[in-house]
């Protein structure tokens, strides 16, 4: 995990107002030379931040970048009773992998990163994670439950993401595709990667990874191989990710604590309101096995219920779903 130089971060802050700044003025503020400023602007470009430079006017950032800040995030919500750690990294391979390596497994620990160099998605896919653009958050959560009692967790996390997003985008179009793809108008807005390990004596630990497309723009982003959307694409606004991170953490604390006490049952109605697959014809893939049928919802454990062509209903605990051709946009 690399830490960016403090002056580089200060430069991002100075330029994030979107105005032009003379190299000499920036140099004076940061107490470094003009050529050091130039070198930093080259580093910013390498991070994917677009910097315009004009001889007469100096440097300007094409799109704003507001960096994540743990204090700003904590101030945005009244701290609940529950204790948790919050860590922000400049860059890491994957926030899930970071938490796997470092966490003492006895407390709730959140980790956000500005950039992931090897972000991971479900089913072995990559998760494109450019610097300062989106949310890459992982949370390590210890449970006094064994693995079999955590089958609904990934659905509850998906619902927490939806609740957080409702503060920032019209909510009618927000749907969840079992088990936990967050869609806006059939396009992927957020994804969840859950990795659960069994500990001793019926305890277990979940590493919950969440990626939300916030300020990605279709003009510059061509590295994603599935239909996607971002809050910026939906609303044309630029979002301060600190606001989103605060809502997300707040909602995760609320929903996962409730799930820990009472399981999936309290969430079944909310699931129905946002279920993207209900009554839809789908193709279903589990390992090498492929099936099709009509989705009848989920059961009390969060398993997907699929009605086959012979009328028989089967439940599935894991797998990947796609809408049958006539329904895809
Ligand atoms: C998916 O494929 O839908 C799941 C994407 C999960 C991405 C997040 S970003 C934060 C965390 N760290 C990772 O490497 N992956 C998850």
The percent of residues in helical segments reads 25-40%
Sheet of most strands: 7 strands, mixed
Outline: globular
Write down the overall mean pLDDT: 91
- Ligand list: biotin
What share of the residues does DSSP label as strand, in percent?
Answer: 25-35%
N→C terminal distance: 40 Å
Oligomeric state of the chains present here: single chain
Low-pLDDT segments, ≥5 res: none
Structural class: alpha+beta
User: Roughly how many Å is the radius of gyration?
Assistant: 22 Å
Strands, count? 14
Give the SSE order as H and E letters.
HHHEEHEHEEHEEEEHHHEEEEE
Number of helices: 9
Strand order of the main beta sheet, please?
3-4-5-9-8-7-6
Using brief descriptors, characterize the structure shown.
14 strands; globular; alpha+beta; 329 residues; binds biotin; seven-stranded mixed beta sheet; 9 helices; five-stranded antiparallel beta sheet
Can you describe what's shown?
The protein has 329 residues and is an alpha+beta fold. The chain is 28% helix and 28% strand. It has helices spanning 6-15, 23-30, 34-46, 70-75, 95-102, 153-165, 231-235, 241-262, 268-274, and strands spanning 51-54, 58-61, 84-92, 108-116, 135-143, 174-177, 181-184, 187-198, 204-212, 281-286, 289-298, 304-307, 313-316, 320-323. The protein has a seven-stranded mixed beta sheet with strand order 3-4-5-9-8-7-6, sandwiched between helices. A hairpin with a 5-residue loop joins β8 and β9 (204-212). α1 packs across α3, α2 crosses α3 (34-46) and α6 packs antiparallel against α8. It is globular, with a radius of gyration of 22 Å. Bound molecules: biotin. Biotin (BTN) is lined by residues 94-96, 116, 119-122, 125, 127, 136-138, 181, 191-193, 209-211.
